[in-house]
Write a structure and sequence with these properties.
heterodimer, A: mainly alpha, two-stranded antiparallel sheet, globular, B: alpha+beta, five-stranded antiparallel sheet, 12 strands, 51% helix, transmembrane (chain A), GerAB/ArcD/ProY family transporter (chain A)
């Protein structure tokens, strides 16, 4: 498996450690979070395998091309529009969550809109660059930040604030029926692979699904998921953990580096995960922009031979983000996120249907 | 060419004398022994006179017949083909000798070059590597490269720029490893250059980029023959302009600029350490001024309490916000660097002493900047010099001002977001179709290949 494929999956996993996934999982801690996590892992791996298998049959093409060549126009426009909206909302949720996190923990005096603007400038730049460049950017960011992330996760797991007994208490709830929202939140961790819709153009090799890559992904997924759920419990205790709005940020703030130049782990944690979150937003919004470009003909928006439609889309994206930012409260954002996650099965259903349609038409 | 016979002044000679006759160094010499005649025309200042004597004049008087002399001249290896009058004129000004025997015109290359002394490396010195770089003569430089890289697949294509100076330049590549797409693109771009005057490789580089405003270099300028060979084996192309002791390497990606040739001459751990130092220097130089501003002005709680107190203590009396302090000191350091480049060697020591020591202390005593600021700025200045290629060091120096601006507006988050912005910008850049920031993990031989992946 190509290393860039791992990046697509892993970036999404890591970005969601800080965002809403742990909060949803912890909220369901007495309602079968553990069983849902186990089931969700299988569901996530299943989706990963099916998606890779589908795109493996069409190397060097992307979803837009496949839909436009193999299906009818109305179908392809509808499907691409649906996917684009999903991609956009996924990015939007991460963006707004991080704006809230920044104002809570890093720059409380700065207006929300200014924080949003500071993130948007770079994110919009990221949307406009070539799709291939995004892969190179991922690699550099992962090489730079991965050692820090591993350090942070290890530091969280192995320190004297972490009490294993709370984890044991949490494990007691293994015999409960899985909860729906925890299940969807877990499978959301594995959703990074759907970005192949845009990036498959650059994977020319036949992707064979062998045992090793799936094994690696399972291990990484289980470790990330385990840390996401159990680290806040181990540090913050089991009973009241669901009350925390940003469980992971609070967790990292309880850890102190006694001899470090930066004493509170929180700041390193915030900045590193901010970088990963920006990657995640860029990948989603770039995808949304490309899907929209695939859905609508570009001839109507040309200026001196340059295609201006991406600029139109980024203006649209930023406007919606701005409006959402001004109007949403943190609680509403959480509800929206939960609602979005709960719609995930329908997203997979529609994806499968689209894959199936393309496969059937392509064979004809 | 013109075959009309003219006894005293052949037709072509008359034409050339008309064009070049205003110069006093044009010499027209008829030679005659009994019935045998020949004439030579040349510019005295660019001709190697000893060679002229040896190759042309002496044999003429020793030969039995005009026919024999003609055949002798024709068999000389340094004979040059010429097709039209313009190229002939250009060649004459470069040091060619025009010989007329009967109706025949022969152009001989016996130019005198005074710039072919090989110079010591001055821009990229190394400890273990070769100490001599290039000369300022194209032929000597090609000789140096051929000497170091005796591979029959090495191709040297010499042609002329279309500007007024008519400098020759050579495109050098290994035919087996070269990326053909890059080669075609390079030739196309070289053809498209329409600038009235190009004097050196560095000058040429600016036109190869085809963009007016570029922050990061996409071609690498080097004076080290070993670096050229290193890149040549990796399938890159070298462009040398006559009269310039540096050569341009295309394509060049970001990591090429971070390689020092000493990396290959040291042992593994030593070179790993220097590489680590180099990248640490790179990040220090870009990030440190911004982090200072972010921590002082936005989040003093980030660093541990003792350190925060020390920093705050050293800033007592500094009358303005940290970003002005940083900007002020950075510009000061830039001025100092710039001054020590431009000054004569004898004076530059004074500049550094006055600027660095005396002014540095005075600034702190006058409470215009904090002690820690001085340390930060010195660290940043030193880190800049760790980057092996000068061009990249200039680019990085400019980049850190952009990041400083972003941080001044947006605080600590701005440092990281701005840094990601720089990565995005670099990742999207291309040098002759090669991605600028692509990381190669394969082993060295594969990694070296530009077209490997």
């Amino acid at each position: 498996m190509n290393r860039f494929l791992y990046y697509l999956i892993i970036i999404n996993m890591i970005a969601n450690i800080v965002a809403s996934v742990p909060r949803i999982l912890l909220a369901e801690s007495t309602n079968g979070a553990i069983t849902s996590m186990i089931l969700g892992t299988f569901a996530g791996l299943f989706i990963t395998i099916v998606t890779i298998k589908f795109y493996a049959a069409y190397p060097k093409t992307d979803l837009m091309e496949l839909l436009n060549t193999h299906t009818r126009k109305w179908f392809s426009i509808l499907a691409l529009l649906y996917f684009a909206i999903n991609w956009y909302i996924a990015g939007l949720i991460t963006l707004i969550t991080f704006t809230f996190i920044l104002i809570r923990f890093l720059t409380p005096e700065m207006p929300l809109v200014v924080i949003l603007f500071s993130l948007l400038v770079v994110i919009l730049g990221g949307i406009l660059i070539k799709t291939k460049s995004i892969l190179f950017m991922f690699e550099v960011v992962i090489v730079l930040f991965c050692p820090l992330i591993i350090f942070l996760l290890v530091k969280t797991g192995f320190n004297n604030v972490f009490v294993i007994d709370y984890v044991r208490i949490a494990m007691m709830h293994i015999n409960e029926m899985p909860s729906y929202s925890a299940l969807t939140a877990t499978s959301y961790l594995y959703i990074g692979i759907v970005n192949l819709a845009v990036f498959n153009k650059f994977f020319s090799h036949k992707k064979k699904i062998t045992f090793l890559p799936i094994f690696i992904l399972t291990i990484v997924g289980v470790v990330v998921l385990g840390l996401t759920y159990f680290a806040p419990i181990g540090v913050g205790g089991f009973d009241e953990i669901e009350r925390l709005i940003y469980p992971w940020i609070s967790t990292s703030d309880s850890i102190r580096m006694k001899f470090g130049l930066v004493e509170r782990l929180l700041f390193i944690f915030l900045l590193v995960f901010l970088a990963i979150a920006i990657m995640s937003i860029i990948i989603h919004w770039h995808g949304a922009s490309k899907l929209l470009q695939g859905a609508f003909s570009r001839k109507w928006f040309n200026w001196k031979g340059h295609d201006l439609s991406p600029f139109l889309y980024i203006i649209l994206f930023s406007l919606i983000a701005l409006i959402a930012m001004i109007n949403l409260t943190e609680h509403q954002l959480f509800k929206l996120t939960q609602f979005f996650f709960n719609l995930l099965p329908s997203f997979f259903g529609i994806s499968m249907f689209v894959f199936f349609t393309i496969n059937r038409r392509a064979k004809r | 060419m013109d075959s009309q016979q003219d006894h005293y002044k052949p037709h072509l000679f008359a034409k050339i004398i008309e064009k070049l006759g205003k110069s006093d160094d044009l010499v027209h010499t008829p030679m005659q022994v009994s019935e045998e005649k020949a004439q030579v025309l040349f510019l005295k200042s660019v001709i190697n006179v000893t060679e002229l004597q040896q190759l042309v004049i002496k044999p003429f008087f020793e030969m039995k017949s005009e026919e024999g002399f003609l055949q002798y001249i024709r068999s000389l290896p340094n004979q040059i083909e010429f097709t039209d009058e313009t190229s002939l004129l250009v060649n004459m000004t470069k040091g060619m000798l025009l010989i007329n025997v009967r109706q025949h015109y022969i152009l001989l290359d016996i130019k005198k070059v005074n710039t072919d002394i090989v110079q010591l490396n001055s821009l990229e010195p190394s400890i273990h590597g070769p100490q001599y770089g290039f000369s300022e003569s194209l032929e000597t430089n090609i000789n140096l490269l051929r000497h170091r890289y005796s591979e029959p697949s090495l191709v040297v294509e010499v042609s002329e720029l279309k500007d007024r100076a008519k400098s020759s330049f050579a495109i050098i590549y290994d035919d087996e490893t070269v990326d053909k797409n890059v080669l075609t693109l390079l030739k196309k771009r070289l053809n498209e250059i329409e600038n009235p005057l190009i004097q050196s490789s560095a000058d040429l580089e600016n036109y190869l980029n085809q963009r007016k405003a570029t922050l990061f270099p996409t071609t690498l300028l080097t004076e080290r023959p070993d670096r050229m060979i290193y890149n040549l084996t990796a399938g890159k192309i070298i462009v040398i302009v006559d009269g310039s002791p540096q050569a341009t390497i295309v394509p060049a990606v970001f990591f090429d600029f971070m390689v020092s040739m000493d990396d290959h001459y040291h042992n593994f751990w030593a070179s790993l350490l220097t590489k680590f130092l180099r990248y640490a220097g790179l990040f220090t130089c870009i990030l440190l001024p911004s982090i200072y501003v972010a921590i002082i002005s936005f989040n003093p709680d980030v660093i541990r309490t003792e350190l925060a107190l020390t920093v705050a203590g050293s800033r007592i009396g500094v009358p303005y916000p940290s970003y002005i302090e940083v900007l002020f000191m950075l510009i000061f350091i830039e001025l100092l660097t710039e001054a020590s480049i431009r000054l004569p060697k004898a004076v530059s020591a004074t500049a550094t002493t006055v600027g660095g020591l005396i002014l540095g202390t005075a600034v702190v005593e006058a409470a215009l900047a904090s002690n820690i600021m001085i340390i930060v700025v010195s660290l940043v200045a030193i880190s800049t010099f760790v980057i092996p290629i000068n061009e990249m060091s200039f680019s990085v120096r400019s980049t850190r001002f952009l990041l400083l601006l972003y941080t001044t507006f947006f605080g600590l988050a701005g440092v990281i977001v701005g840094f990601i912005g720089i990565i995005i910008f670099l990742a999207n850049k291309e040098s002759f179709g090669t991605p600028y920031l692509a990381v190669y993990w394969k082993n060295r031989t594969k990694e070296l290949k530009v077209n490997g992946k």
